[in-house]
Amino acid sequence: MVTKVIMPKLSLTMKVGTVGKWYKKEGESVEKGEPIVEIISEKATYDLEAPASGVLRKILVEEDADAPVNATLAVITAPDEAFSEAEILAETVPKEEVEVEEKIRASPAAKRLAREYGIDLSMVVGSGPDGRIVEEDVQRFIEESRRLRPKVKEIIPLSGFRRTSAERVSASFKTAPHSTVMMKVDVSKAAKLHERLKVSYTAIIVKASAKALKEHPMINSTFDGDKIRVFEDVNVGIAVATEQGLVVPVIRNADKKSLKELDEAINALTDKARKGKLSREEVSGGTFTISNLGMYGVDFFTPIINPPEAAILGVGRINERPVVVEGKIETKQVMTLSLSYDHRIVDGAPAAEFLQKVKHYIEVPETLES
């Protein structure tokens, strides 16, 4: 029986996945359930399992190539079973690409070069048979355009993590009306807790946020068509910068973990994120996100909500500032928190009340040790 290996839809927003590495070569035997190909999607590396046992007869999407959801990546058959490669390929090519093929005749090399330089092939005059565009035509077009364009240092394909991040950020800003409230927090006492327990400031902020989310559940929700879904679980995502782009691993049930447990989880997930080893489960199911740019010297910023969540907390740097305490000027360690929230779900007053609660827990850190 002919079995197709299909690009899976790993999330509601996923449209395209990237083939990272094929673990089997054409002609090799495969067993149902064993990893057959590495898929990069939703900011994680995911091993797709073989849907059937047999022989990997044909790989249709090569390594490092993108493919839309539900596209056929390969074909598994019995050792001597016949199948129509033409029919499989016809089903694999998206309709949009078929229409372009009919309108613009171009060689594969010409298309590849045009994609690399972002050139619209309809602007290129073909010199091949019947006006077919060949690679030399595209190269000539590039050379003619260079004298009018800035010199390009490097071309980075928008694929894998970067494509996913771009799509999610764009969708978030288009669909969720953002608003942001900011608040200064005295972290003098939290600094002592940080030194005494040897836990990171991020762990302290995660704990404070998780406790506040339990008391303000509307922040821990999502907008779903004509209704709002309020989550029971408090799963806090931590934005991590990697060479592949921004990744958001998730700490599940953060409200039930101690500061030490949170610190250990943050360290482990951050390390896996930077090595590109996060599993699908470790980047899924978040209900609230924290983004910390304090280590870059940023005082405050307005973060973009990580869809489909209702809010995201931006954390600025900690520095000494003069503050008035009972009529006297003192220096305190202060940082600024910025809460961006979906105004369809939360109004300004409840957002401010939530941020006040986060501030309270950080300024009275003994409440975080229980």
Report the CATH architecture of the largest domain: 2-Layer Sandwich
Number of strands: 19
Query: Helix- and strand-based class?
Result: alpha+beta
What is the H/E string? EEEEEEEEHHHHHEHHEEEEEEHEEEEH
Q: How would you describe the shape?
A: elongated
Q: Can you count the helices?
A: 9
Backbone CA Rg: 26 Å
Distance between the termini: 59 Å
Beta-strand content bin: 25-35%
CATH superfamily annotation of the largest domain: Chloramphenicol acetyltransferase-like domain
Which ranges are low-confidence, i.e. pLDDT below 50, for 5 or more consecutive residues? Answer: 93-103
User: What is the third-level CATH name, the topology of the largest domain?
Assistant: Chloramphenicol Acetyltransferase
Main beta-sheet annotation: 7 strands, mixed
CATH class of the largest domain: Alpha Beta
The tally of structural domains comes to: 3
User: Could you estimate the helical fraction of the residues in percent?
Assistant: 25-40%
Rounded mean pLDDT score: 86
Describe the structure.
The protein has 370 residues and is an alpha+beta fold. It folds into 3 domains: 3-95, RNA polymerase II/Efflux pump adaptor protein, barrel-sandwich hybrid domain (OB fold (Dihydrolipoamide Acetyltransferase, E2P), Beta Barrel), CATH 2.40.50.100; 104-175, Dihydrolipoamide Transferase; 177-368, 2-Layer Sandwich (Chloramphenicol Acetyltransferase), CATH 3.30.559. The protein contains 9 helices and 19 strands. A hairpin with a 2-residue loop joins strand 13 (240-242) and strand 14 (245-247). Helix 3 runs parallel beside helix 4 and helix 7 crosses helix 8 (259-274). It is elongated and about 85 Å long. It starts with a strand and ends in a 7-residue tail after the last helix.
